[in-house]
Design a protein that fits this description.
The structure is a single chain. With 144 residues, the chain is of the alpha+beta class. The chain has 4 helices and 4 strands, in the order βαββαβαα. It has a 4-stranded antiparallel beta sheet. Helix 1 runs antiparallel to helix 2. It is elongated and about 85 Å long. The chain starts with a strand and ends with a helix.
Length: 144
């Protein structure tokens, strides 16, 4: 059977439990039509690049699917009808990624870095230790 990645964006005003119910509903549609869902990832509430149907944010969910084309057509039909889903996209892939997806690896990396860490800058001198700038005299000495 062909392999697919299905990503959908749910409205921002939904609770996480409702988003999980949408993912379970998609999984049920696939399994009822003879396919399997290998992995489900919830990427969380993220900002959109532009407003879609008055939403500035959306809940992102990705499903790795192994299913026949008829099962996927039914999933896309029902996803298009659902008013809680504002966008969806399904692509065919040669193989599923092992481990977390790129979006999950990115969020883990961001959590490890912390809020103000901008990478490794240990070799850069502090602002006061810059040899290329001349020492400034205090204001009192300049006025005298």
């Amino acid at each position: 059977m062909p392999l697919y990645e299905h990503v959908f964006l749910a409205r921002q005003d939904l609770a996480q439990a409702q988003v999980d119910a949408l993912a379970e509903n998609a999984t049920k549609i696939i399994t009822d039509n003879g396919g399997t869902v290998a992995k489900t990832e919830t990427w969380g509430l993220r900002s959109l690049a532009y407003r879609i149907a008055k939403n500035r944010k959306a809940h992102y969910v990705m499903l790795d699917i192994d299913a026949p084309a008829a099962a996927l057509a039914e999933l896309e039909r029902q996803t298009g009808i659902n008013e809680d889903v504002i966008r969806f996209m399904t692509i065919r892939v040669d193989e599923h990624e092992t481990g977390p997806s790129a979006m999950m690896r990115r969020s883990e990396r961001d959590r490890e870095r912390g809020p103000r860490d901008r990478g490794d800058r240990g070799d850069r001198p502090d602002r006061g230790d810059r040899p290329d700038r001349a020492e400034r005299a205090p204001r009192e000495e300049m006025e005298a």
